[in-house]
Amino acid sequence: MKEKIVAIIREMAAEYGWSVVSDFSDDTVLLESGLDSLGFAILVARLEEELQYDPFSMMDEPVYPRTLGEFVAVYERYAS
Questions:
Q1: Which domain holds residue 48?
Q2: Alpha-helical runs (H) found in the chain
Q3: In the prediction, which pLDDT does 23 show?
Q4: Which residues are 67's β-sheet partners?
Q5: Mean pLDDT of the chain, nearest integer
Q6: What are residue 29's DSSP bridge partners?
Q7: pLDDT exceeding 70 applies to what percent of the chain?
Q8: Less CB within 10 Å around the terminal CB: N or C of the chain?
Q9: What is the pLDDT of residues 43-61, one digit of tens each?
Q10: Collapsing DSSP states into helix, strand and coil, what is residue 62?
Q11: Rounded to 5 degrees, what are φ and ψ at 53?
Q12: For position 49, which CATH number holds?
């Protein structure tokens, strides 16, 4: 899952001309990765297209992941 998410981030960066960190790790802070709030929203939409689910709409209580590891964990938890 992590590899898929990072690949999509890199595709988006190339497509939109964004500058993102060169090395993504579980500890990479999303707001320091080169993604802004719009980039994050586009990422979630692309992942919904790719994976056919949006874990954020499936949650009972909203979670706002701070790091890439937390973000990946949200997607892994709600994967079917």
A1: 2-78
A2: 2-16, 37-51, 55-58, 68-78
A3: 95
A4: 29
A5: 95
A6: 67
A7: 100
A8: C
A9: 999 999 999 999 999 999 9
A10: coil
A11: -160, 155
A12: 1.10.1200
- List the one residue out of 38, 37, 24 whose CA is nearest residue 68: 24
CA atoms within 13 A on the CB side of 52: 1
What are the backbone dihedrals phi and psi of residue 19, each rounded to the nearest 5 degrees, phi first?
-100, 115
Q: Write out the two tokens for 52.
A: 């056919």
- Cβ-proximal residues to 19 (8 Å cutoff; 6+ apart), any chain: 13, 34
Evaluate if residue 80 carries a pLDDT over 90: no
CB 1 within 8 A of CB 76: yes
Residues 46 and 62: beta-carbon distance below 8 Å: no
Place of tokens 């993102």: 20
How many domains are there within the chain? 1
